[in-house]
Amino acid sequence: MSFSSETKSELCLLRTGKKELAVAECYGILLYGSCFSAREIRLVTSQRDFAARLPRLFRRAFSLDFDELPADAPSGKLRFAITKPEKLLQIFETFGLDVHATLSQHVNFGVLEEDAARCAFVRGAFLSGGSATDPEKGFHLELATSHHSVCRETKSLLQDMGFEPKEAMRGGHALLYFKRADVIADFLTAIGAMNASMGVQTAKVEKDMRNMITRRVNCDSANADKVVAAAQEQLDAIRRIVRSHGLNALPEPLKDTALLRIANPEASLSDLAQLSSPPVTKSCLNHRLKKILSLAERER
């Protein structure tokens, strides 16, 4: 099962609640569904749990049943429809709409004055026209509707709820979408999908940790490369001095440092400082190696 389907299944476990919340959820479902007009309401879904919730939700919100119910099939699309004029009139009036005058759909904010009603509306919009990418693969959640005015008005509603969705168009549908994991998690929490929200947050933490480990490994690898390059430069300098005058020509501290480097060609400055007898500071050892490099440069 996809992450979207799991999230919608979780949302469908929620109780329909008070009638006004059921009305708000149905409003989101209809505006983000297949068809919501004065002649027909049509909802099509392949999500079984959502299909089971729809009749209960419409009964709670409007005290009516669908005129067309899907066949009892194990797979495929499930279609619900309402075509009787008296039922359509009742639904439109519940939303404060004129069934005869409405040419394009809009969000009637008067139906969604309470915070709980707004959350229910957005939940319905997600159940009907939403999708979310598996957080293990990426972070993307969107709401899609064929009503462009509804998209703009839903954006305003989401902004009132503290969200800032981005807008786009795809195949004649208007989209609102989020790309940030923390915002998606907050959105899912707001509509009641707590488990899905936790899944997004967990995936973000794991992804951040993997990125941090990768950065550290790359950093360690780069530092190791620097240590090797510096050691090679020092060894080349020591060889030049050996060829020219021999190590005995060096002052005793520099001679000891040169021998230490020859014996430990891959050691870091910190390790060489500890291996010195007696031990010296990293700064002191670095100063001695720079002196060796300077002497070798003169020989060149």
Structure write-up:
This protein is an alpha+beta fold and 300 residues long. It has two domains: 3-207, Roll (Endonuclease I-creI); 216-299, no CATH class. The protein is built from eleven helices and seven strands. It has helices spanning 3-12, 19-31, 48-62, 85-94, 115-129, 148-160, 181-191, 194-244, 252-263, 269-275, 282-299; strands at residues 35-36, 41-45, 78-82, 130-132, 141-145, 166-170, 173-178. Helix 2 (19-31) packs across helix 3 (48-62). The protein starts with a helix and ends with a helix.
Shape descriptor reads rod-shaped
In helices, the fraction of residues equals: 55-70%
Mean pLDDT: 89
Strand content bin: 5-15%
The CATH class of the largest domain is Alpha Beta
Strand segment tally: 7
Q: Using only CA atoms, what is the Rg?
A: 34 Å
Brief synopsis:
With 300 residues, the protein is of the alpha+beta class. It has helices at 3-12, 19-31, 48-62, 85-94, 115-129, 148-160, 181-191, 194-244, 252-263, 269-275, 282-299, and strands at 35-36, 41-45, 78-82, 130-132, 141-145, 166-170, 173-178. The protein folds into 2 domains: 3-207, Homing endonucleases (Endonuclease I-creI), CATH 3.10.28; 216-299, no CATH class.
Brief descriptors of the model:
300 residues, Endonuclease I-creI, 2 domains, 4-stranded antiparallel beta sheet, 3-stranded antiparallel beta sheet, 58% helix, rod-shaped
